[in-house]
Amino acid sequence: MNLSKRDIKHNWHPYTQHKTASPVVAITQGEGALLWDENGKEYLDAIASWWVNPYGHSNKFIADAIYKQLTSLEHVLFGGFTHEPAVVLSEKLMEILPSNQKKIFYSDNGSTAVEVAIKVALQFHYNKGIAKTKIIALEDAFHGDTFGAMAASGISFYTQAFQGSLLEVVRVPIPTEGNEQKALQVLHELLATREYAAFIFEPLVLGAAGMVMYSPEVLDKMIALCKDYSVFTIADEVMTGFGKTGKTFATDYLVNKPDMMCLSKALTGGTIPMAITTFTQEIYDGFYDDDVNKALFHGHTFTANPTGCAAAIASLELLQTKEMQLNIERVNLSHLDFENKIKNHPKVKATRVLGVIFALEINTSSQESYYGNLRNKLYNFFIENGVILRPVGNIVYVLPPYVMTNSQLQKVYQTIENALEIV
Ligand SMILES: *Cc1c(COP(=O)(O)O)cnc(C)c1O
User: Fold this and answer.
1) C-alpha 237 to ligand 1 mean position (Å)
2) CA–CA distance, 338 with 8 (Å, rounded to integer)
3) Whose CA is nearest to atom 15 of ligand 1?
4) CA distance 231 to 225
5) Whether the Cβ atoms of residue 206 and residue 142 lie closer than 8 Å to each other
6) What is the Å distance from ligand 1's center to 238 Cα?
7) If you measure from the C-alpha of residue 156 to the centroid of ligand 1, how many angstroms do you get, rounded to a whole number?
8) Do the bridges between strand 357-362 and strand 34-37 make them parallel or antiparallel, or are there none, so unpaired?
9) Which atom of ligand 1 is nearest to the CA of 208?
10) What CA–CA distance (Å, rounded) separates 168 from 176?
11) Residue 73 — φ and ψ, nearest 5°?
12) pTM of the predicted model, to two decimals?
């Protein structure tokens, strides 16, 4: 029996209604931007396998670093111990993070990175004897699937079954073009109540919402407002980090820097699950005390796993090569060309590009749901044509590995153009 048939006997897949979903595809090999299934069919991975893989599949440089680490020290607990990969990775990250970021806390995935940030924001105030238990987030945000991260998320598909069991989160409109004043006003009113511990946001691009974009200028103003009211700002760069927006971090476009940052996805080049949350000195100092109760009692068994750290160090080295920086520019220019070509297509409502991210909204008369019929039709069309794209509602987006070649990019664009004919 083939793998995809054997799979459904025991495996429960994420975000999947198994009764109605199309069969899963069993992938047996990957190289660069390409994947092959068990029947030898080729796919272009145009979303970098959920945004984790900028340097290409089966990257030899990262694989060698992992192998070397596995055969010297695969893992050691991080409570009371440390190791070279964690020390070196933190030093390297400090060189590229905004200069106000001074401390790094390791965890396992984007959700835990957000969870840590939210807990730190709440406990910082608790340690000072102040009860601030609410946070502010953007409408349609996505911050992960664990309870704290889910509470901050605003896409109902992910959260509706759990309303009532969640941390209190109040929402601000996404400050997209034309909505800046409204967003600033709502944020200002919330801050003035002085009830909030933190404002969490996906800087410049809301990924899961469909690559919804807004300007650095308005985010700078929002952060400045939060600073006026001493409300911590948390930049969730789990998706945007490590070059996706054309700069190393989306916050590199800002004048005002956030108090905390969450990073994961591309951190290890799509090899080993790992995440970090970074903090200012002020936040760290809010936990630094003779009283053990003021410590951050949070930790994961695999915290700062040496193999993950080695993969991250190798990934950072790749990101910083001239070649990879040129790849990011090349993909960006290619997206801009395609945007110019497609934006006046009668079925295209809107397009947007930032860094290696391209998104296109399809004109529809109906209100398209996140996992609705149009989305499924498009998804199946792309898979049939050997291109991995996961539209959200009526939005098709491309976020390729930086190493995707020009001709591969052209095939992705052509397939999107062809898809417009079937909707
Ligand atoms: C994917 C994502 C997360 C969650 O990361 P996981 O590794 O899936 O837990 C959090 N925030 C943002 C912005 C993301 O894109």
Assistant:
1) 9
2) 38
3) 239
4) 9
5) yes
6) 6
7) 16
8) unpaired
9) 15
10) 24
11) -155, 105
12) 0.97
For the CA of 237, the nearest atom of ligand 1: 13
Question: How many other C-beta atoms are found inside a 10 Å radius of the C-beta of residue 373?
Answer: 10
pLDDT of 370 above 80: no
Does the pLDDT value for residue 364 go beyond 90?
Answer: no
Structural contact between residues 220 and 184, judged by C-beta atoms closer than 8 angstroms: no
Encoded tokens for 105: 């806390």
**What's the rounded Cα separation, in Å, for the pair 188 and 250?**
23
Q: Is the pLDDT of residue 407 over 80?
A: yes
Residue 96 tokens, joined: 């590229």
Q: Region 172-180: what's the mean pLDDT?
A: 98
Give the residue, by CA position, lying nearest to ligand 1 atom 11: 143
Extract long-range pairs of 245-251: CB within 8 Å, 24+ residues apart. 245/204, 245/205, 245/354, 245/355, 245/357, 246/328, 246/329, 246/332, 246/354, 246/355, 246/356, 247/355, 248/96, 248/319, 249/96, 249/97, 249/98, 249/203, 250/203, 250/204, 250/205, 251/98, 251/203
- Which residues does a 6 A CB cutoff place in the pocket of ligand 1? 109-111, 114, 142-144, 202, 207-208, 236, 238-239, 264
Q: What percent of the chain has pLDDT over 70?
A: 100
Residues 6+ apart with CB under 8 A from 282: 259
In angstroms, the CA 61 to CA 311 distance is 9
| Residues in Cβ contact with 397 at an 8 Å cutoff, skipping those fewer than 6 apart | 47, 210, 211, 357, 358, 359, 360, 389, 391
